[in-house]
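Appendix B, Record 12. Input sequence as logged:
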Amino acid sequence: MEFERSGQARTRTGARATYAAPSNVYRTKDDAWITLVGTSDHIFRRLCQAMGQPELGRDPRFIDNMQRVTHLDELDGLVAAWCARHDCDELRAMLAAHEVPFSKVYTIDDVLQDEHFRARGTFVRLPDPALGSVPAPAAVPRFTGHRAPVPRTGPDVGEHNAEVFGALGMTDGDLAALRAARVI
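Logged structural output:
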């Protein structure tokens, strides 16, 4: 519909939304990343307060979403520069205090340590013949009071060759020849 009505096709924009602003992923002073959304006029003004720049909320370039999108590069630069001056915990406190929607972009360590993921049983340990035990995502969906059996990690390379090739009519001798030729 967008292309049909306007004649313009969207192009790649990375994590940044181009229809609402600001809405992007920003690097923090301590090299973490946060996703921040300040797209409604009220939320944007609260973001400006959090940034210590309330005048931006009255600036004609940023007065409403249409103007913010028109001046998206400039606005994104201002928000990115502000985020870069603060570590993730500082931003978390300021944004939460001003009721601005945001979230830290999790690293794998954040995911594995998250108390909610742990409480929900999001990860399981899978038995592995070579490695002992490895973490993996739990089956989805999961139902209260019912735990699906924990499978194991995948089979070893070639573990089922005899069954698969046997179903194709190959003999043990054929498989031995393929192994000798390092085909399998």
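The two ends are 52 Å apart (CA to CA).
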